[in-house]
Each structure stands twice: as structure tokens, then as C-alpha cells.
Design a protein that fits this description.
Length: 484
């Protein structure tokens, strides 16, 4: 075999391959011999058919199969010879029909390869990390939630009006388009607490007695408010357990209330630090993309763009259906809107594909790998954070797709830990509403920073889901993204 490689671009290579005639002859003879031995032809005992007759009878099918087999086999040998690792499927060109004995056979294969970086540029990257401090309201709010979950109810000692904290049994009838109330009532039981009830009920139910009815508008500040006739059917008093050491012991893990409070604060800080690390990780990836420009494989990029466009179209259709249902109106698409969606799809796809290959290059340069021990540690971390049994988590991640996503998350964390010491990370105080309101200039600055952080958080969510998908695209010719 002879082969040469031509570099079309940093990520596109063209292989010219020639299969020598003697290899074709050898493979053809072996295939004809196998066919002769296996074939059952009238007039000949099995395995006794003359080779010449076998050649005459099976030539079309043998040369067709031989063309396919030898083309791919020698293509793989050429890849190995030139140390190429393609992403996606090859594109074969200049294939001159079927292989013929006595003649060399040549063809061309175009492959896309992963972009490569000599070094990772981190010069001048400065990131800000929000300082994590315990919010005093977190402990009290969590204790209140725990209290509520362990509350009991009892009948009222004497009839009285509804109060905040009560458990209220209601019937709701929606106002229909003709202005009449729905014939069938919707039963509803609700605890009048901020964490469990809509604001409309918290505002309107207190003061009502059993048997009272009131019109209540839900979602008055939204495009499609709904009006219900609410009737109080029953009221029960809720008894909250005392917040003391016995309360803590009832939860099974603590001896004192102070231990419980300390645990709540510890978990809050751990979760807040994880969220901040996720945001910081996305900021770092964004900065690394700017510093490390890569030419991206065009087919992979195109497939990811199509996948993103499909997601956008699905969201747009859902919004249009919701508007139509609410107002009876059809939404209209414009050429300007189509162009904007196309641009957004390409931009999002470019960030996703760039991030994927950037992470792979950092892992290659840093010799970072995901080991079975890493996966086991991640399972344990998830079990500790969620309280779910370790065996159940492993069973849920047995699907190869989810296991691959988990490994991707682990690799991302390894990449972050590898790069973080090479950049400047400044710790800044968290911005609160009180700080933002201190002065007009400070308020304007704070709002900009908060908006930027919200944008970064949103990007972190969408990119994380999509980056996992592109990993599959580098090994198959299509990218599918059916999430979430």
C-alpha cells in the first residue's frame, strides 16, 4: 500500500491511498476460494466446484464486497501510518468503480481531525470569585421548613376565621370564557405558608370563615390571569414542633439544636461554594476560548449548529402554542427573526464545540484522565449531597450515556483544578441589595455586576448540558441533543 496525506486545513486532512494489484489478487483468490467451498450449486458436490466456475458465477458480488472491505481496511492502515485520529465519519472520493484484478486501485478519503494546541495560553486572565459567607436567614428558613414538614394538624377548638399557618380545605371554580363559573369544583388543600402557598391565597384567605366564598385573581401581573371562585370548606390548626434539642434528635443525626444549626450552615456554604465554582468554571472557559483560538472541524460544527437550531425551533414553537392557547393568536416568523435564530444557533454551537475540544486539549497537555477511582469518589460525593443510597445512584448511572456525562463532568473539574493555579482569581465580597442601594453610583455598578453573574450562570447551565452532547459527536457522524 502507498498513501500520502495532504493538509487542507489544521483540522481537515486528505488521504490519497493506492491498493497494489498483488494485494487485490491475493484477497480475491481467498474470497473466491471461500465462496467455492461454501456454495451449494447443482451438479457439484459442496466444496468441489472448480475455481474458474466460481469466478464466473460470483465475480460481481465478490468484487463489490472486496471493494468495500479493502477500501476501509487500507483506509484504517493509512490512518495508523500517518497517526491520524479522525472525528466523525470519513468522506470517500475519487473512487473509480469496483476493484479489478491486475490493476492497482486508488481512492481519496477526507477526514476531519481534532484541533491541536502546542500550549495553553492563560496570560492575563483575571477572574473574580464571590466570597462565601453564611447567610443568617438560611438557618432560620431551613429550620422553619423542617418544622413545617414535621407539623401535625388538629380540628379547631372553636370556629374561627382562617389564619396564616392554617391548613385550609377549599373548592375552586374557574371563571369560563362565557363569564360563568365552572360547574365542577376543584378540591384543594393548602397550608398557608410562604413556602407552600401562592401569594394570592396568602393575601385573600386570612379572615375568611368556613362556607365563605371569594373571587380571587391568580397571576394578575401576567399575560393570562385566571379568576377562581374560592370557597373555604374546612380549617385545621397546625401544631409545629418546638425547636429544641429533642427536635434535633428526632431527625436522627444530632444531639443538640446547635449541632443541627451548624450542619445546616455547613451544607449551605458547601453548596454555595459549589455553585460559585461552577460559575467560575464557565468564566474561565470563556476566557480560555478568547486566549486559545482553535479552527473547528466543519462537519462537527455544522451538526452541532443544526442541533442548536432544532432546540431553538422547539422552544419557539412551544411559546407560539402557549400564546395561541392563551389569546387565540398565531405568532409570525420574520426573515429578520430567522436570521437572528441562525446566528444565535451558530454562535452557541461554536462555543460548545470550541469548549469541548479545548477541554480535551488541556487534558491531553496536562495528562489528565478520569480513573475508576475518580468515578467512585464522584458517586460517593453525590450520595452524600443528595442522601440517596450509593447503590441506587450507580444503578441510575448504569446507562452508558449518563456514565459518559458523569465522566465529562469529572474531567471538566480536573481541567479547572489544573488551570486555576495558572490564572489570577480575586476574591470579592458578595453584592447584596443593601450594598447596591447605598448610593446611586454604587447601585448602578452593582446592578451591572449582578446582571453579568446571572448571564454567566445561565451560560453555565446551557453549556454544561450541551458540552456533554458534543462528546458523542466526535465519534459518530451526527449530533443529537434532545434535552431538557
Amino acid at each position: 500500500m502507498s498513501s500520502t496525506v495532504k493538509k487542507i486545513s489544521p483540522v481537515v486532512q486528505e488521504l490519497s491511498i493506492t491498493i497494489p494489484s498483488d494485494e487485490i489478487k491475493k484477497s480475491a483468490e481467498q474470497m473466491f476460494d471461500n465462496m467455492r467451498k461454501r456454495a451449494k450449486v447443482k451438479g457439484f458436490r459442496q466444496g468441489k466446484m472448480p475455481l474458474a466456475i466460481a469466478r464466473k458465477m460470483f465475480a460481481p458480488s465478490v468484487y463489490a464486497e472486496l471493494t468495500s472491505d479493502l477500501t476501509y481496511r487500507f483506509f484504517l492502515e493509512a490512518l495508523n501510518e500517518h497517526e491520524l485520529s479522525p472525528v466523525g465519519e470519513p468522506r470517500f472520493t475519487d473512487i473509480a468503480g469496483l476493484i479489478k484484478e491486475g490493476e492497482d486501485y486508488s481512492f481519496t478519503a477526507t477526514v476531519e481531525t481534532a484541533p491541536r494546541l502546542e500550549t495553553i495560553n492563560t496570560d492575563g486572565i483575571v477572574l473574580q470569585k464571590k466570597k462565601i459567607v453564611a447567610d443568617p436567614n438560611v438557618v432560620s428558613d431551613e429550620l422553619m421548613r423542617m418544622q413545617s414538614s414535621l407539623a401535625t394538624t388538629k380540628d379547631l377548638d372553636a370556629p374561627r376565621a382562617v389564619q396564616l399557618g392554617d391548613q385550609v380545605n377549599m373548592e375552586l371554580r374557574r371563571r369560563q370564557e362565557d363569564g360563568e363559573w365552572a360547574e365542577n369544583a376543584l378540591p384543594q388543600e393548602m397550608v398557608l405558608e410562604e413556602m407552600q402557598s401562592p401569594k394570592e391565597l396568602l393575601t385573600n384567605l386570612p379572615g375568611m370563615n368556613v362556607g365563605d366564598e371569594k373571587e380571587i385573581v391568580f397571576g394578575e401581573d401576567r399575560d393570562n390571569p385566571m379568576t377562581f371562585l374560592v370557597k373555604v370548606m374546612d380549617v385545621k390548626q397546625r401544631i409545629l414542633p418546638e425547636l429544641d434539642d429533642d427536635f434535633a434528635k428526632d431527625l436522627g443525626e444530632f444531639e443538640t439544636l446547635d449541632e443541627l444549626k451548624a450542619d445546616i450552615e455547613k451544607k449551605y456554604i458547601a453548596n454555595a461554594e459549589k455553585r460559585e465554582k461552577d460559575v467560575l468554571k464557565q468564566k474561565l472557559l470563556e476566557a480560555l476560548r478568547e486566549k486559545n483560538v482553535m479552527e473547528l472541524p466543519p462537519t462537527i460544527l455544522q451538526k452541532q449548529t443544526e442541533a442548536m437550531r432544532g432546540q431553538y425551533d422547539q422552544i419557539i414553537q412551544q411559546v407560539a402554542d402557549a400564546k395561541k392557547e392563551a389569546k387565540g393568536e398565531d405568532s409570525e416568523k420574520t426573515d429578520e427573526g430567522e436570521a437572528e435564530i441562525d446566528n444565535s444557533s451558530k454562535k452557541a454551537a461554536t462555543e460548545i464545540v470550541h469548549t469541548h475540544f479545548l477541554i480535551e486539549e488541556i487534558a491531553r497537555i496536562g495528562e489528565l484522565k478520569v480513573t475508576p477511582e475518580d468515578v467512585e469518589a464522584k458517586y460517593q460525593e453525590m450520595a452524600d449531597a443528595t442522601g440517596l443510597p450509593l447503590a441506587r445512584l450507580k444503578a441510575e448511572y448504569a446507562n452508558r450515556k449518563y456514565a459518559s456525562e458523569l465522566e465529562t463532568h469529572i474531567l471538566e473539574d480536573k481541567v479547572f483544578d489544573f488551570i486555576a493555579p495558572k490564572v489570577t482569581i480575586e476574591e470579592v465580597d458578595a453584592i447584596t441589595d443593601e450594598n447596591a442601594a447605598a448610593a446611586d453610583d454604587e447601585a448602578e455598578s452593582a446592578e451591572k455586576k449582578i446582571a453579568a453573574k446571572k448571564k454567566a450562570t445561565k451560560k453555565a447551565t446551557t453549556k454544561k448540558i450541551s458540552t456533554n452532547k458534543i462528546a458523542a459527536a466526535t465519534k459518530t457522524p451526527a449530533v443529537e441533543d434532545n434535552d431538557k
